[in-house]
């Protein structure tokens, strides 16, 4: 049958010249779509897609070197020893994902996503690289003291991260910095196993208890320095140290005139939140002198701001601080250490730019050389002994070692209309509506692209208004929507941006994106040997319009992605049809700042180290993410009582008919297990169906079920196993 034979009525109303369009000729003129320079360069130079193309597209060499690369299989690998990593030592992230997520019954760990992968070897390499950079600068410039840094625990207070830093930093006398009483207790405990010369720098606002703990730490032979953030703190230090008979080591934080103009520079300059003015510093010196404790003043601290963009700004700030240091020496203070604070930045977008909050224009060696040169120049001019150089680099130490991996669970399908459906669409409309539609099509056929888009918007709004008035049915509204979207897509030939729904809470796992617009590199961790054929934004699980990621490195508002299996795509690339994305360089601040919006808790965490085994890694530690019960407890709920309430309710409404005891038991078992499961989505079948097939009891996996069956547990024991 001819294509139009069944559409005679609709075709008959078509004005002359439209028969070809109705028959399926949709060759509307296409506007050249916008493409980023990176994408354009990659696409124009290749007909065959390779991992190297993906590496260039996602700028992996820019922000990821020397720790991340793409292997021949198209998977992202971790290079745990940086530039010193051999080919066989690279760790395939997809293999980690498989090991961690596979059920225990097949040798996996059975952890749920989202997932943080920690690589302590990278952490160690960052510490070694930082110390090596300063050691090289000190030797090359004839500097007559040494460098010993501290890690500010606020960047990531995780126990194992801090313990690893103390262990890896021990050969370098690397210490810790605390900014609150809990952080001080943490640092005191960890440094008991560290180098005895390692500094414990006590920053932040202080009360009597804080100062007591800091002085107690000195009594415990920890190399503790109390840094004065407010002038009044010196009175407490003098008073409490005399009561404890402890000779304190004191530092002062100076407010510099040098100011960091970027987002992270709000704590710098004369009006910064922290530190003392020159007038206040002089009053502190006088008070210490009057108390016979001026020799206790041994450290000068300052902070230009996080993510210092250039060495020019760095040298200006360090040079100004070195002048203050030299003046304190002249006034008789027992000065020994200059603490340059944080600010050592990382390159989030691979641009190597000095004009962005997302990048820096220097490397570790340039940073260290600039610091050493600025201090040496002032001290030599003043004939002052070179001080110990301390820095509080947190972001630069921990950012690279932590990777957040999460699944894309679905994606919006592109709205497409087959031109052959046009007669059916027109048939459902009134005469004036059909006339409007033909006007729209006529504009397209005349190559009037701008007019066409205007007509589409006007037509759509007109019929939305009619629908709201109740004079248009939903079928007709859908027909007009389909036609307008079809014409808009034909005029703008670029693929429409899709929304990928990800198994994640941005508020919990990437809070800096939501709160300050911080952009992190986000990349598929596999299938990078295939061309990403769509662009998308990421939408999380929360019931919040801010729960989306629509800004990416390079100033992009969408991310190149692959089709999901089942969405017309090309398979899972060795990941069982699943699509995994990784957020990189997020090891600083994200875990400590994350909340429990919508009661989504933190991710599962696994720590891996390089090994000479077949997969190049070994799992050292695996911790499931917080369960529903755990996050409920955070908000003062009591999951045990909640379960009992629901259990009694189920018995009242579902357990009265004893002929259906199996379904009742399944219901109770499912409720019980739900308290123990993570709040995030799972790909497995509904647990209630699993429970019903197991005589009414739910088990997280086959292994647990087999254990319960073999033990011959009673009904009460079965149920306590579910929710105890």
From TrEMBL:
Cofactor(s) needed by this chain: pyridoxal 5'-phosphate; Mg(2+)
Recorded superkingdom: Eukaryota
InterPro entries linked: Ala_racemase/Decarboxylase_C, Arg_decrbxlase, De-COase2_CS, De-COase2_N, De-COase2_pyr-phos_BS, Orn/DAP/Arg_de-COase, PLP-binding_barrel
Pathway assigned to this chain's UniProt record: Amine and polyamine biosynthesis; agmatine biosynthesis; agmatine from L-arginine: step 1/1
EC code(s) of this entry: 4.1.1.19
Family, similarity comment: Belongs to the Orn/Lys/Arg decarboxylase class-II family. SpeA subfamily.
Keywords: Decarboxylase, Lyase, Magnesium, Putrescine biosynthesis, Pyridoxal phosphate, Spermidine biosynthesis
Protein name (record): Arginine decarboxylase
Sequence ranges assigned to domain Orn/DAP/Arg decarboxylase 2 N-terminal in this UniProt record: 142-399
Leading EC class: lyase
Species whose genome carries this gene: Hibiscus sabdariffa
Keyword S-adenosyl-L-methionine: no
Stretches that traverse the bilayer: none
Reaction it catalyzes: L-arginine + H(+) = agmatine + CO2
């Amino acid at each position: 049958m001819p294509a139009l034979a069944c559409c005679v009525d609709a075709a008959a109303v078509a004005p002359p010249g439209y028969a070809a369009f109705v028959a399926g000729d949709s060759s509307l003129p296409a506007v050249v779509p916008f493409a980023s320079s990176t994408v354009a360069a990659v696409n124009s130079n290749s007909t065959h897609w390779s991992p190297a193309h993906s590496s260039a597209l996602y700028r992996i060499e820019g922000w990821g070197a020397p720790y991340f690369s793409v292997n021949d299989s198209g998977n992202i690998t971790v290079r745990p020893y940086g530039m010193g990593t051999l080919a066989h030592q690279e760790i395939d992230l997809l293999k980690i994902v498989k090991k961690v997520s596979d059920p225990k019954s097949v040798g996996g760990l059975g952890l749920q996503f989202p997932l943080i992968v920690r690589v302590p070897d990278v952490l160690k390499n960052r510490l070694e690289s930082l110390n090596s950079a300063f050691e090289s600068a000190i030797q090359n410039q004839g500097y007559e003291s040494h460098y010993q840094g501290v890690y500010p625990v606020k960047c990531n207070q995780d126990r194992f991260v801090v313990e690893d830093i103390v262990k890896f930093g021990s050969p370098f006398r690397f210490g810790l910095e605390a900014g609150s009483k809990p952080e001080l207790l943490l640092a005191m405990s960890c440094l008991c196993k560290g180098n005895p010369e390692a500094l414990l720098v006590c920053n932040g606002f202080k009360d009597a208890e804080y100062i007591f703990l800091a002085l107690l730490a000195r009594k415990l032979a920890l190399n503790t320095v109390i840094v004065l953030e407010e002038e009044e703190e010196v009175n407490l230090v003098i008073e409490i140290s005399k009561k404890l008979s402890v000779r304190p080591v004191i530092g002062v934080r100076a407010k510099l005139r040098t100011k960091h103009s970027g987002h992270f520079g709000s704590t710098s300059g004369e009006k910064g939140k922290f530190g003392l003015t020159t007038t206040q510093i002089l009053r502190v010196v006088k008070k210490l002198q009057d108390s016979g404790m001026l020799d206790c003043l041994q450290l000068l601290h300052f902070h230009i701001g996080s993510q210092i963009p250039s060495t020019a700004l760095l040298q200006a700030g360090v040079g100004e601080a070195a002048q203050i240091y030299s003046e304190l020496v002249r006034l008789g203070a027992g000065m020994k250490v200059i603490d340059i604070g944080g600010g050592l930045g990382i390159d989030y977008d691979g641009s190597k730019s000095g004009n962005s909050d997302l990048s820096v224009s220097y490397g570790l060696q340039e940073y260290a050389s600039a610091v050493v040169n600025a201090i040496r120049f002032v001290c030599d001019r003043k004939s002052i002994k070179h001080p110990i150089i301390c820095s509080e680099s947190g972001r630069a130490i921990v950012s690279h070692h932590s990777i957040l991996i999460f699944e894309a669970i679905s994606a919006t399908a592109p709205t497409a209309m087959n031109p052959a459906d046009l007669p059916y669409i027109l048939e459902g409309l009134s005469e004036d509506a059909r006339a409007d539609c033909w006007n729209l099509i006529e504009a397209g056929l005349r190559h009037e692209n701008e007019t066409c888009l205007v007509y589409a918007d006007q037509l759509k709004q007109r019929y939305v208004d009619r629908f709201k008035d109740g004079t248009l049915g939903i079928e007709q509204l859908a027909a007009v929507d389909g036609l307008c979207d079809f014409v808009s897509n034909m005029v703008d030939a670029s693929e429409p941006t899709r929304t990928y729904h990800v198994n994640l809470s941005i508020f919990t796992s990437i809070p800096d994106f939501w709160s300050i617009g911080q952009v992190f590199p986000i990349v598929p961790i596999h299938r990078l040997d295939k061309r990403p054929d769509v662009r998308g934004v990421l939408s999380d699980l929360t019931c919040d319009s801010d729960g989306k990621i629509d800004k990416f490195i390079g100033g992009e508002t969408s991310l190149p992605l692959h089709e999901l299996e089942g969405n017309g795509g090309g398979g899972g690339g060795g990941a069982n049809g699943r699509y995994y994305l990784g957020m990189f360089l997020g090891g600083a601040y994200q875990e400590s700042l994350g909340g429990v919006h919508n009661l989504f808790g933190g991710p599962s965490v696994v720590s891996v180290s390089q090994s000479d085994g077949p997969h190049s890694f070994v799992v050292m530690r695996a911790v499931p993410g917080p369960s529903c019960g755990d996050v409920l407890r955070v908000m003062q709920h009591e999951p045990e009582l909640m379960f009992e309430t629901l259990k009694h309710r189920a018995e009242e409404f579902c357990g009265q008919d004893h002929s259906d005891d199996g379904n009742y038991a399944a219901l109770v078992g499912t409720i019980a297990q739900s308290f123990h499961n993570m709040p995030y989505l799972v790909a497995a079948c509904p647990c209630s169906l699993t429970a019903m097939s197991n005589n009414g009891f739910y088990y997280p996996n086959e292994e647990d079920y087999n254990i319960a069956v073999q033990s011959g547990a009673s009904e009460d024991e079965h149920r306590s196993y579910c929710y105890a």
